[in-house]
């Protein structure tokens, strides 16, 4: 099955030096049979022109492949487009792809003029020099564009490592401050295998897990923690979480840690909650207090008065998780599946052996 990530199936893109070496080797393999009755000058001419043409054709094919195998930015799902912007920069990427494509016509011009000269040459040595010159000029052009190829290679590598998302599956996105227990929840209910740790910034990329219920696939998305600061100060990792909220979420589970053992005061978490609510007013949002097992009662009471109606869970023990997920499904209008989801969640073993995608 092709991957849901449009970058996952792009063939490997070669660097400038790799293309030069590849095309050079291919051109030397080109053995042109010509009758020994033809004079040495003509035999040399036929062989050297043919090798020059082969070198040029191989270089152009590799450049064209780099550009054409790259997913069309115009048709990209907005989540991937935003991630390409965050991780590489769309303008830089477009400029790199355009520059690589322009090289193809330049190569035709360079090689065309050298071949004209080869056709007119009167000495075998002169023809060989002209082939060498053609190869040298094309190689210089490739080296000049090596930064563009490196940009496209880097973009491909970074984008290919992103999770596959199905835009047609209902999607629950879990977000909040770092270390509040987002991954613990996503891991408990889905196939995702995020790392869980006692320190913040454990999750550094968007992770997609699945709940398969009655042949329906629901995506459950774990995100990196976001801090309470202006958008322009947010780093690449936080901006990936924002992109998931913006482009993937049918419903958001916004998780807060009233115990503050995450390392940040409740007030700051509340500021982020209010910002996320404002930014994504269209998505239904469920606010949840996690770690209520270790929250002192007076601290919990204060939190309740600041955010009335927040759900309370202990993600690490599975307490309150079923009802939370059912409410999330209600919000994405999958309420008809409620009973099946309840059964699915009840059947899940705690901890070690959970369903996997493979
Ligand atoms: N006491 C208690 N600890 C919890 C609970 N849920 C999670 N934890 C712990 O909190 C710590 C952080 O959990 P994670 O799931 O990694 O938190 P996260 O929000 O994904 O963190 P980042 O990826 O760094 O943003 C881990 O040590 C968990 O074991 C809970 O309900 N109660
Ligand atoms: Mg995490």
Structure notes:
The structure is a single chain. With 358 residues, the protein is of the alpha/beta class. The chain contains twelve helices and six strands. The chain has a six-stranded mixed β-sheet with strand order 2-3-1-4-5-6, sandwiched between helices. Helix 1 runs antiparallel to helix 2 (40-68) and helix 4 crosses helix 6 (146-160). The longest helix has 31 residues, at 90-120. The mean pLDDT is 92. Residues 178-184, 196-198, 200-203, 224-225, 290-291, 293-294, 314-316 line the site of guanosine-5'-triphosphate.
Number of strands: 6
Lateral strand order in the biggest sheet: 2-3-1-4-5-6
**Distinct small molecules bound, one entry per kind:** guanosine-5'-triphosphate, magnesium ion
Low-confidence stretches: none
* Strand portion: 5-15%
CATH architecture of the largest domain: 3-Layer(aba) Sandwich
Rg over CA atoms? 29 Å
Structure summary:
This protein has 12 helices and 6 strands. The chain is an alpha/beta fold and 358 residues long. The model has no long low-confidence stretch (mean pLDDT 92).
């Amino acid at each position: 099955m092709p991957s849901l990530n449009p970058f996952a199936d792009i063939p490997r893109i070669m660097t400038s030096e790799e293309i030069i070496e590849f095309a050079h080797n291919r051109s030397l393999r080109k053995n042109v049979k010509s009758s020994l009755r033809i004079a040495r000058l003509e035999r040399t001419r036929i062989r050297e022109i043919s090798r020059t043409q082969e070198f040029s054709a191989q270089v152009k094919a590799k450049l064209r492949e780099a550009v054409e195998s790259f997913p069309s930015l115009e048709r990209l799902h907005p989540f991937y487009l935003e991630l390409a912007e965050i991780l590489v920069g769309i303008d830089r990427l477009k400029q790199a792809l355009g520059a690589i494509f322009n090289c193809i016509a330049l190569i035709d011009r360079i090689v065309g003029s050298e071949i004209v000269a080869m056709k007119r040459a009167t000495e075998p040595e002169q023809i060989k020099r002209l082939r060498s010159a053609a190869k040298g000029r094309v190689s210089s052009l490739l080296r000049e564009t090596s930064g563009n190829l490196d940009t496209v290679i880097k973009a491909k590598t970074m984008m290919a490592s992103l999770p596959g998302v199905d835009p047609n599956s209902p999607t629950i996105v879990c977000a909040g401050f770092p270390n509040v227990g987002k991954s613990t929840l996503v891991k408990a209910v889905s196939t995702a295998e995020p790392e869980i740790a006692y320190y913040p910034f454990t999750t550094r990329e968007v992770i997609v897990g699945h709940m398969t219920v009655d042949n329906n696939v629901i995506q459950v998305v774990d995100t990196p923690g976001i801090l309470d600061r202006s958008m322009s100060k947010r780093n690449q990792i936080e901006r990936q979480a924002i992109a998931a909220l913006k482009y993937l979420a049918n419903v958001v589970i916004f998780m807060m840690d009233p115990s503050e053992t995450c390392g940040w005061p409740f007030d700051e978490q509340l500021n982020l909650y209010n910002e996320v609510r404002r930014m994504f007013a269209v998505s239904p949002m469920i606010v949840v207090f996690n770690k209520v097992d270790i929250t002192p009662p007076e601290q919990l009471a204060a939190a309740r008065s600041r955010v009335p109606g927040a759900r309370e869970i202990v993600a690490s023990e599975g307490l309150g998780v079923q009802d939370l997920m059912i409410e999330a499904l209600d919000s994405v209008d999958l309420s008809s599946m409620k009973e099946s989801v309840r059964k699915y969640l009840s059947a899940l073993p705690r901890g070690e052996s959970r369903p996997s995608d493979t």
